[in-house]
């Protein structure tokens, strides 16, 4: 008896139990949609249909990659951030829900200013800067050290109907203008903690994760140069690790800390108008 789409979906959940844990049902649906070329609602209506061999073969290949430890986002080639679709692929950090805290806070502040120029430094997929441009009408500049990221960021800007300047730069080295806001999700994992990360995270680029021995290398480098690149009263907004707030305050002198939806410290906002020397 050939499988129906519904029974294949249930078998796929079982196949993904070890690799995906609590997300097995969700990931099974997403991989089924990938193999069948449909969305989740269509999948629901197709439950009683017989799955064709072509889709079965496609599904087997996708499931095998997932069982092998590849992140679902790379397999699907697309992931959602702030309600927008971003192309993702190996070599670029996958947009995370944690990072929506930074994007939301930045959008709120830019809207309050009625627009402005925003630099998304270490842009990766471009998800933060593109969301800010899309929702707050900001003029976005995206920069990264990785050519792979710059190519993808350009694709994602186009995909989301946003025009953005894209610059290759090692932090501020290739940036020569001023911005009303700088947003950055730099690598901030301690080098010694990398090997203990989930196997899926270890498939992501080290370049986007490793923040040096104490995880703070990039924050120290940003501290040296950020004021030159901000307009008067501009704001630097950083994603930080859940246990880095005190270190960030020590490096920058002051910072407003914002929590993510899990209640962890996640964003530091450094306002230059609080500086007497700004
Ligand atoms: N929050 C990410 C993780 O733990 C780290 C991202 C980063 O270093 N910027 O997977």
N-to-C terminal Cα separation, in Å? 73 Å
Query: Per the principal axes of the C-alpha atoms, what is the gross shape?
Result: elongated
The helical percent reads 25-40%
Strand content: 15-25%
How many beta-strand elements? 9
For the sheet with most strands, the description reads: 7 strands, mixed
Which small compounds were modeled alongside the protein? glutamine
- SS content category: alpha/beta
Rg for CA atoms = 21 Å
Strand order of the largest sheet: 5-4-3-6-7-9-8
Nearest-integer average pLDDT: 96
Protein described:
By secondary structure, the protein is of the alpha/beta class. The chain is built from ten helices and nine strands. The longest helix is centred in the N-terminal third of the chain and has 16 residues, at 5-20. It has helices at residues 5-20, 24-36, 40-45, 53-67, 72-76, 100-113, 127-136, 147-159, 217-225, 245-252, and strands at 78-81, 84-87, 117-121, 139-144, 164-168, 179-184, 230-239, 256-259, 265-271. Helix 1 (5-20) packs across helix 2 (24-36), helix 2 (24-36) crosses helix 4 (53-67) and helix 6 (100-113) packs parallel to helix 7. Bound molecules: glutamine.
